[in-house]
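$ ./design --mode recover --in tokens.txt
reading tokens...
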């Protein structure tokens, strides 16, 4: 009897280990498939410092920086605008204000009651960014001013000192998204949830970079852009990848892929940015 029980125990132990191993494998496989542990974020690197934004925030930052490039403004203008929008709305298109301005709306919390435009206008990120830059350009010498002073001249905030808290972050994202710092922006993202639409990508790109030649073919959008503009467009695409279901971006002999993240050697070394869209999941 004792030997029989021992034999049963010897059989049961490997079986339990096998079942436990199978359960662990299934659990790991589930986590990998569901991507539960993926923390989505976009990171801009400036020297030894790095700063993170959520993907939706990064897409709004890319739009603002793109409009500054479109207007021919220096990167400093984008730095000021991004620091301002981070403080005012955390780079989200808010449909409400706060105690200091109940009618404040949008990325820059602009107030219709103070002449910034209608509620519908200030809720339009393209309008809001252009309106911010229009007012910034009226400030003589803003390029040499501290962020707090330049932003306050435009915004007339109740808490002007708060803009300084976001100066380094705004500068890092502005440098990448205006193309001054190549391959300085990376996004870690989950798998696409839908197929990308070339027409939607082209429409969003044209809002920031109108007039660039774009060609759509076989699930890619190829944009004719060189130098700093090329890097601005390439990093705009990375920052917008989550919203627009972009799978990969290639420019100047480097490529970014949604699956792996980071910029690695590969892709065409031409004056074109190649944006590859996700297929059906």
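writing sequence...
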């Amino acid at each position: 009897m004792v030997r029989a029980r021992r034999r049963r125990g010897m059989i049961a132990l490997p079986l339990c280990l096998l079942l436990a191993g199978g359960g662990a494998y299934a659990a790991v496989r589930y986590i990998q498939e569901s991507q539960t542990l993926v923390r989505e974020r976009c990171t801009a690197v400036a020297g030894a410092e790095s700063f993170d934004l959520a993907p939706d925030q990064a897409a709004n930052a890319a739009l603002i920086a793109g409009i500054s490039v479109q207007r021919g403004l220096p990167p400093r203008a984008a730095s000021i605008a991004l620091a301002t929008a981070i403080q005012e709305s955390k780079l989200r298109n808010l449909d409400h204000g706060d105690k200091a301005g109940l009618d404040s709306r949008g990325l820059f919390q602009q107030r219709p009651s103070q002449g910034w435009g209608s509620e519908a206008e200030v809720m339009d990120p393209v309008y809001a960014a252009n309106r911010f830059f229009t007012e910034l350009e009226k400030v003589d010498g803003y390029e040499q001013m501290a962020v707090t002073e330049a932003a306050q001249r435009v915004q007339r905030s109740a808490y002007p000192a708060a803009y300084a808290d976001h100066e380094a972050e705004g500068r890092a994202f502005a440098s990448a998204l205006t193309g001054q710092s190549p391959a300085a922006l990376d996004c870690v993202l989950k798998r696409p949830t839908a197929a990308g639409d070339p027409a939607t990508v082209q429409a969003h790109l044209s809002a920031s970079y109108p007039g660039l030649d774009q060609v759509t073919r076989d699930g890619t959008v190829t944009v004719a852009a060189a130098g700093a503009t090329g890097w601005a467009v390439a990093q705009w695409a990375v920052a917008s990848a989550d919203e627009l279901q972009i799978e990969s971006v290639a420019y100047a002999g480097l490529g970014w892929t949604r699956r792996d993240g980071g910029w690695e050697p590969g892709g065409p070394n031409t004056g074109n940015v190649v944006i590859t869209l996700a297929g059906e999941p």
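exit 0
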